[in-house]
Amino acid sequence: MTIPRALLGLAGLTAAGYGVVRLLALGLTNLGATVEWLVAGVVLHDAVFAPLVIGAGLLTARWAPARLRAPATVALVVLVPVTLVGLPELGRFGADPRNATLLDRHYWMGWLALVTLVVVMVAAGAVWGSVRGRHGRRRSRWHA
Amino acid sequence: MTLLDQRPRVRVPDEHDFTSWLRSPAVTARVGLWLGVAFGIAFVTGVISHWGQTPHPWLPFPSSPSWGYRVTQGLHVASGSAAVPLLLVKLWTVFPKLLARPPRALGDLLVHGLERVSIAVLVASAIFQLATGLANVAQWYPWHFHFRATHYAVAWVAVGALLVHVMVKLPLIRAALGSDLDSRAHDRRGAADGPGVLTRRALLRTTWAAAGVAVLTTAGASVPWLRRISVLGVRSGHGPGGVPVNHTAAERAVVAAATSAAYRVVVAYGGREASYSLADLRAMPQTTASLPIACVEGWSAGATWTGVRLRDLLALVGAPADSDVLVRSLQRAGGERYSYVAPNLASHPQTLLALRLHGESLSLDHGFPCRLIAPDRPGVLQTKWVGRLEVSS
């Protein structure tokens, strides 16, 4: 192992150790609640989200018409993460009726507009790609 | 796309059942590089924010540029938002590794186990940081830990685990980044030898697009010209005087005290106290300053404030301009009910007890009768409904 690599590892262990010390200093109750969320995050990803994505992939591969697979994948790779980012706004979980300036948009309307825009753009891209493909200049943009 | 082997008996799939050509170190390293950049920006700006919120730091938090905190905290939330698609795609490309069978030999097993632990810590802390950060932006607190202190501690764990991960993978990262995106040199055994549904380039472009969309749809909370397109922005910039409000007077139960005719702001220094009514404050020399209000939750807005310089008030009780000032609000609850003003800010000509916003009397929700406003300062420290200044030199 080279010296820079060893230093990288040492810096990493030091930083993580410092984080653990800070976590412990917040007390056991705080630590318990934190560990709960740390574990829940991994379990939600590895045991729920990832299998759902793999299932969606299998369904797409088996059932979706060949020319729809790539556009559908692109649309989902954009829209699913963005929807997760927007969940606190879409659910308005932190809204307080006494504060009208917080969460002050029509989030579901905005989300629908975003979905429409992404679907239209991806569809336009797919049509453009297949038109170009048919004229024999280049293959579809997904397979370029 | 993934195609699991079709076997008659049901079994847990292993690493080699995943055949997609996209799940390659060539893709993982490229997405991982940008994920590392996003986490790096979030970490550095997070440390800056922690520094800005620490009372009496050993190195004073700078007072210029006045928009500094607005930029760093806006970047903090934007890089966290961008990291969500990057993290999900990166984890997708390495998911088969989760199902890899452990080696038989004891020595290999130990190394394998250690690497698994380091990756579990990395993934857990990364998801934790993004989930808690994004919920905090929308003032949603569905947990029982102290958000700020815990988010800061776990940030160190995440960045530490990230550095260890880079150390372990460095030879593979360098090899993968150094070779062509379509190279099969580092692919897992069993991976397909050509594109399926998407090319690797198409997946990368889609991932960058997803990161861009995540930023554009949320960043309007701090970038005014993005407000119209930030459909998931937590604030659209509306509010009394054209500035949003983090916590209202009603939420903080200060309406009666703030509107009382008996309201006075007390300045205490060296055993001596002086108190000033709103009329007294209005009669003092007024200063106007354009200073952003930049919340720790990432939203921000530019504003023009008018009021009394803090150092003028200090002079009235005979305190030096470069004093330490503890600013107390009329509010009894909330982490923002008091703040410390360091000497470099107390003496700053733009540090005000503001009475007016955009030329109009301060609204109750912005801190009427007066609020603290100072350059380059986290919004949580811009104390509203100021009731008392405790000065020590």
Explained architecture:
The complex is a heterodimer of chains A (144) and B (393). Chain A has four helices and no strands. Chain A has 144 residues and is mostly helical. The model of chain A has no long low-confidence stretch (mean pLDDT 91). Chain B has 393 residues and is an alpha+beta fold. Chain B has two domains: 15-226, Fumarate Reductase Cytochrome B subunit (Up-down Bundle), CATH 1.20.950; 255-392, Oxidoreductase, molybdopterin-binding domain (Sulfite Oxidase, Chain A, domain 2), CATH 3.90.420. Chain B has nine helices and twelve strands. Chain B has helices spanning 25-53, 68-98, 106-137, 147-178, 200-216, 255-259, 278-283, 310-316, 343-346; strands spanning 265-269, 272-276, 287-290, 293-294, 300-301, 304-309, 324-329, 338-341, 352-357, 360-361, 371-373, 386-392. In chain B, the strands form three sheets. Chain B has a five-stranded mixed β-sheet with strand order 2-1-12-7-8. The longest helix of chain B is centred in the first third of the chain and has 32 residues, at 106-137. Chain B starts with 24 loop residues before the first helix and ends with a strand. The mean pLDDT of chain B is 94. Chains A and B meet through helix 1, helix 2, helix 3 and helix 4 of A and helix 2, helix 3, helix 4 and helix 5 of B.
Strand-residue proportion of chain B: 5-15%
- List low-confidence stretches of chain B: none
Strand % of chain A is under 5%
- What would you report as the Rg of chain A, rounded to the nearest angstrom? 23 Å
DSSP helical segment count of chain B = 9
Estimated helix fraction of chain B: 40-55%
- Radius of gyration of chain B from CA coordinates: 26 Å
Strand element count of chain B: 12
What is the global morphology of chain A? Answer: extended
Largest beta-sheet details of chain A = none
Structural class determined from secondary elements of chain A: mainly alpha
Mean pLDDT of chain B: 94
Low-confidence sequence ranges of chain A: none
Overall shape of chain B: it is elongated
Which structural class do you get from the secondary structure elements of chain B? alpha+beta
Q: How far apart, in Å, are the first and last alpha carbons of chain B?
A: 67 Å
Which bin fits the share of residues in helices of chain A?
Answer: over 70%
CATH class of the largest domain in chain B equals Mainly Alpha
Counted by DSSP, the helix tally of chain A is: 4
